[in-house]
Write the structure tokens for this entry.
Amino acid sequence: MFRDAKKYFIFLGLLFLAACIRDDLEDDNSTKKGTNTGTNPIETTGSADAGSINKGNPDGAIKTDGNVELPAADGANTSGPDSAADSAGDSEQQPMTGECSPDGATIPCYQGDSSTKGVGICRAGTQTCQNGQWGECTGMVTPVEESCDGRDEDCDGETDEELQLDTCIPDGMDEEKLKAQCKSGRQKCEDGMLICELVDNAQIEQCNGLDDDCDGEIDEEADTSCFTGEVGCEKLDSGEWECQGICRTGSQYCVNGALVGACTGQVLPSVFGEICGRSPAVDDDCDGEVDETCTCIRGETQECYTGPEGTANVGACKSGEQTCLFDFYGPCTGQTLPADETCENQGVDNDCDGDEDEVETGAMCSTGKPGRCAWGTTACQGDDTVCEAFNDPIAEICNGTDDDCDGSIDEDFDLQYNEQMCGSCYRRCNRGMECCRGQCVNLSSDPNNCGQCDKVCTEGRTCQSGSCQCGPNTTLCGSQCVDLSSDPNNCGECRFRCPSGASCVTRTCQCSENLTYCSNGNVCVDLSSNNSYCGSCSNACDAKTERCEDGACECRDGFRPCNNKCVDFNKDNGNCGQCGNVCARDQECSGGKCICQNSDLTACGDECVDIKTDEEHCGGCDQPFCATECKNGVCQ
């Protein structure tokens, strides 16, 4: 018996403890009713009726479509503008923490700056309610440092901008060749790929204390040429000098990067002008003509030369001949002047300096071919100067280089959709990722590749488990996710559009101030003056006889009320002259009187008679009965 009593008291204790816990929970719910801290977001699996929030819900839970119920928490009124319901519909919502229900409910999340969401690669992710707790934000992509890949990775609306580009070695070259030619390679981002451009740093040597021509010497053969004459030599834009006749430039000493001293060694035009009788005759005054002031005998000829002094009849250079015309010598013809040394005419001194074929070869040059065949050195090939490539074409290798020199890079390899080489030769996608257009993506959550490559979720939809789905509190209408509680183009149901100027509030169209929404016509009207909706949405005035004034149908000018309608006593056959006065069948109302339709007859009461021949109304309606024949309104 003692054992049974002990069990009885234990049972009573448990009942008391359960009652205390229930009271605490009820007290807690009473203080939390209609509040939410924002830590428990609202989640729906379909469209939510905004008008159903907290209606008849004593425990403070927020219900949507009957499938999702989230307990309200402390700190925020669910009916207020800053409620959790608002934040749950915010596409830029920060990841949530804390309790949730039911399991499987989802909400969007994004931790980046709101201005970057949906720009470039940046996309919102998804949180899922698991075991009563909000999980991690998955599938979210936030801004990262920009790299050369043809994508906007910092999500600022620009692609491949402000990149950190380094020096490099162009295809087919090595570092020693670059140094030898005083050239360098510089990276350049083009069409989402880094290419190496050759930059030529060599310049004409100048007197500035620098090795301008990159030959290892400073200020040697610097631009120290000078000329003090007014005519004879001209300095070109390239920095080189061009002289005529005997004129030659001189030089100034270059000391510590500065020109010093007088211009020595220059040859100025002859102060005597043309000197006659020289053989061959030369251009002494450096004006481009020879002996143009020397007199002569007509038909007489002489040897002439307009090139630099000392080059006549040297190498390929030959004197010409001029003929005396009208007592003065004409132009010098048939001469050969110095020319640049080329591969043509090998064994010939073209520049007439006494040396043969000092053509510069071995300089780095562009072959005009793509890829590894792009660069080479100059060489003579027959009479032509050619650029011989450093490298010959080889079979294409997946290495980011045009190995076969056909203008395409790695064209034999699928870099767009191969998970083993996605976007570049050695980039392998992680497990569970697919390669779409050269990017490793998660097909289960990527809104631009949802379920398959290039399948894009439209605005407002997120990718969940490889399917484009609408977010919380939104419904799929056509191809767009909309909020039926606030979208004026889909108010309460898909494709139900509120009239112009109206807004959608809690799934119902609402008009602006002083206007009333009439659902039977889907219009916003002023009930005080609208004929079709006068006083109420169901009351319409007769457009011909009535007008709406102060919300009531009033008779228009010329009409009077009669039997709950407005009539014209001057014309109404049923109310002619007064309410209820009906004209006979062969009569019509005109000017408020019933008159016969036949103008030869006279209306007498409810009939039309010919008072000229009718014995009962001979001569008029009120005349006594005519016992004899009525002729012309007179009893005979």
In short: Confidence is low (pLDDT under 50) at residues 1-8, 24-92. The longest strand covers residues 183-190. The first helix runs from residue 2 to 32. The chain is about 5% helix and 25% strand.
